[in-house]
Amino acid sequence: MQRWRGVVLMTVVVVATVWLALTNQLILYIHPRYVVFTVIMAAVGLVFVVASAFLREPHDHDEPPTRWQNTLSVTAAALSLAIAVGIIVVPPATLSSATLDQRAMNATGLSEGQGQTVGQAATTSDAAFARFTVLDWSSLLRQSSELSLYEGKPVDVVGFVSADPDDPQNMFYVSRFIITCCAVDAQPVGVPVYSPDWQQTLEIDDWVRVTGGFDANPSEQSTESIALLPDETTVVEQPGEPYLY
């Protein structure tokens, strides 16, 4: 009985993993570079599941399990079943402001090659600035608060809305998560936007596209010295790849 219970649970997990990969939703949980590896491991797991299903069960000479062993076995099976059902029933979803509230914005060090450096920005054309992502701008804002670095540069970024905790009435962040391995290590990065009474037209977790330019932050409560002053803020669909790398 235990063998068949394990076979069923492993089959559910493997099928769910492959389904997520085929529907391009596995990237909501892991970095895209690990998708192929994960699918290969799922296929290997499926081979073992099939082999286990056809193997003859050896004659058991062991003593029958004790009560606590039965209890432990049932508990483990229940947890495994809950995880397997959760994978199938709960719709895949990207990380949102609920996760962001548990982590500090723009607080994690970036890996080499992530974002932009002040030196790189010094030789960047306006056309290239217009293609900068939330990660690119947030990395620059962490390195320098020299306004002259940002003045006149076109900004066009996409992310979800999260409130500035120091001035939620007038400020929000265009936010994204950066992922190194999987959703567990996701860290939020964001571009501060000064937009008084933004709650009248936007909601937390709305995906928006904001265009405009940086200037000294007019907010008296926010700790951000520079903010994006929007020319236009448009609600958009969530991108196919919601995370940045």
Please name the CATH architecture of the largest domain. Answer: Beta Barrel
Helix content percent band = 25-40%
Based on DSSP secondary structure assignment, what is the total number of beta strands?
5
Low-pLDDT segments = none
Strand order of the largest sheet: 3-2-1-4-5
Listing every helix as H and every strand as E from the N terminus to the C terminus, the arrangement reads HHHHHHHEEEEE
The N- and C-terminal alpha carbons lie at a distance of: 45 Å
Shape: elongated
Write down the CATH topology of the largest domain.
Answer: OB fold (Dihydrolipoamide Acetyltransferase, E2P)
SS element count, helices:
7
How would you state the average pLDDT, rounded? 86
Q: What Rg, in angstroms, do the CA atoms define?
A: 24 Å
Give the helix/strand class.
alpha+beta
Beta-strand percentage range = 15-25%
CATH class of the largest domain: Mainly Beta
Tally of discrete structural domains = 2
Note the main sheet.
Answer: 5 strands, antiparallel
Structure, described:
This is Putative repeat protein (TIGR03943 family). This protein is α+β, with helices and mostly antiparallel strands. It has 2 domains: 1-89, no CATH class; 97-235, OB fold (Dihydrolipoamide Acetyltransferase, E2P). It is 35% helix and 18% strand. The protein is built from 7 helices and 5 strands; from the N terminus they run αααααααβββββ. It has helices at 2-22, 35-54, 67-89, 97-100, 118-121, 126-129, 134-143, and strands at residues 155-163, 171-178, 187-194, 207-216, 226-235. α1 (2-22) runs antiparallel to α2 (35-54) and α1 packs parallel to α3. The relative contact order is 0.13. The mean pLDDT is 86.
